[in-house]
Every structure is written in structure tokens, then in C-alpha cells.
Write a structure and sequence with these properties.
Oligomer: single chain
Low-confidence stretches: none
Number of strands: 14
Strand order of the largest sheet: 4-5-6-7
Order of helices and strands: EEEEEEEEEEEEEE
Largest sheet: 4 strands, antiparallel
Radius of gyration: 18 Å
Structural class: mainly beta
Helix content: under 10%
Strand content: 35-45%
Distance between the termini: 22 Å
Mean pLDDT: 93
Length: 229
């Protein structure tokens, strides 16, 4: 998507090798590609890409024992005040978020994403997409469960929370529990395929004719579209 400066921004995860970057101490971190001149239709050899954040340390977290944690798969939206809000999955049992005030060059220290009552978005190591619905609403998808023995699961149900921009809030997007609900679920009678009953939202969303369609891989086998109202 285009960031506040009009340039395309794409987030990615970097798994850090201690042999290559000893000072980063392993783990995995979030970075962004900024496509600086793609609107000029350059030849591939002339394409200019900047890797952000500028400090080259990426957005990172630590486990309670002080060792590097995993923070991955950034999902970001533009805020009305020109900032960028980004939510990410982690190995810490909940979604974390970070904010940039300068189009991705620098980011705040990541914090757990929470509802207005301060309860966190409990979540395994699984995609947690965030989308702008274009009418003042933002929608955050998450699982709402975490199993420390199986940190990537369970993934059989998806919840969604509707949030609104809060200019003066400690968290720029405010999520109230009253607008949180179960979005979809694979119940006891659903067939398991591959790893099981997976609703991991490796998703995208299209907007056309006033409709928001969420495209997602049901059990990683079937590509489905579901209207989000």
C-alpha cells in the first residue's frame, strides 16, 4: 500500500543469523521495503528500494527471560493524522503493535495490543491481519487463544474487533469489547486437512462497489471470499 508520503511500503520478516549479525542476537524482526521511484516506471536495474527502519535494527521484542523473541508478519494501516499503525504476531502469546510518525523511518517500541479495558489480544504465532474499512473503522483479526505448549495453535476460530482512531489515546486505534465478536469457526464436525482445522488468515482484502471482501485460505487448501460488513 501507499504510506502517508505516497510511496509504496511493504512489510517483511527477517530471521536474524547470529553469524551474519552478531549484534542482533538472533530472533526475528520486522522491516519494511519502501519503493522510492516505482511510479516513474524505471527499468528493474534502476529501481530504488530503501529498507526501513533507518537504524537497521528492525522492530523487535524480547522474551521474559531476556532472550530475543519473534515478531513477524506486519499488518499496517494509515492513520488520519499521518502516522502508520502496525500490528504484528509474536511468540509472546499476544499481538504487539508499533507506530511510525515519519512514514516508516522510525518506529515506537512495540507494545501488546489491547482493548480499552486493558485486556490483551491473546493470539498464537499465526497471522493477525489488520484492515482499514474506509469509513472510520479498522478491523483486527485474531484467534483469542494461546497454548504455550503449541505456540502456533490453535487456529480453528477467528475473532474480529472493530476499532476507531483515537487521536489522544495511548493506543492510536481504540478497540472496545462491545465491538468484538466471533468471525468464523471450524467446529467439531468440520473436516481436518493438512495440519488440521486451520483458519490461519494469510489473507487479503478487496474493496469494490461498497463491499469489503476478505480472501483467505480455509485449512490452507481452499481459497474463499467472505464479505465483511
Amino acid at each position: 500500500m501507499r504510506g502517508p508520503d505516497g510511496k509504496y511500503l511493504a512489510g517483511f520478516t527477517k530471521y536474524v543469523s547470529k553469524k551474519i549479525s552478531p549484534h542482533l542476537q538472533g530472533g526475528c524482526r520486522v522491516y519494511f521495503y519502501r519503493f522510492d521511484n516505482i511510479d516513474e516506471n524505471p527499468e528493474i536495474r534502476d529501481l530504488k528500494i530503501t529498507i526501513l527502519p533507518e537504524d537497521d535494527n528492525g522492530i523487535h521484542v524480547y522474551q521474559p527471560n531476556g532472550k530475543p523473541g519473534n515478531i513477524e508478519e506486519p499488518a499496517w494501516v494509515n492513520l488520519p493524522d499521518g502516522r502508520i499503525f502496525c500490528s504484528m504476531r509474536t511468540s509472546l502469546g499476544s499481538i504487539f503493535y508499533s507506530v511510525s510518525s515519519d512514514c516508516g523511518a522510525h518506529w515506537t517500541e512495540p507494545k501488546p495490543l489491547s482493548f480499552s479495558d486493558f485486556t490483551p489480544f491473546v493470539h498464537p504465532i499465526s497471522p493477525c491481519p489488520l484492515y482499514d474499512l474506509g469509513d472510520g473503522r479498522y478491523i483486527q483479526f485474531y484467534h483469542g487463544v494461546f497454548d504455550v505448549e503449541r505456540p502456533y495453535f490453535p487456529r480453528n476460530s477467528i475473532r474480529c474487533a472493530i476499532g476507531y482512531f483515537d487521536k489522544n489515546g495511548a493506543q492510536p486505534i481504540r478497540f472496545d469489547k462491545k465491538e468484538d465478536s466471533l468471525f468464523m469457526e471450524l467446529g467439531a464436525d468440520a473436516d481436518a486437512l493438512g495440519y488440521g482445522k486451520e483458519l490461519a488468515l494469510y489473507s487479503s482484502m478487496t474493496h469494490q462497489d461498497g463491499k469489503h471482501i476478505l480472501w483467505y485460505p480455509d485449512r490452507k487448501f481452499f481459497l474463499l471470499g467472505k464479505e465483511v460488513k
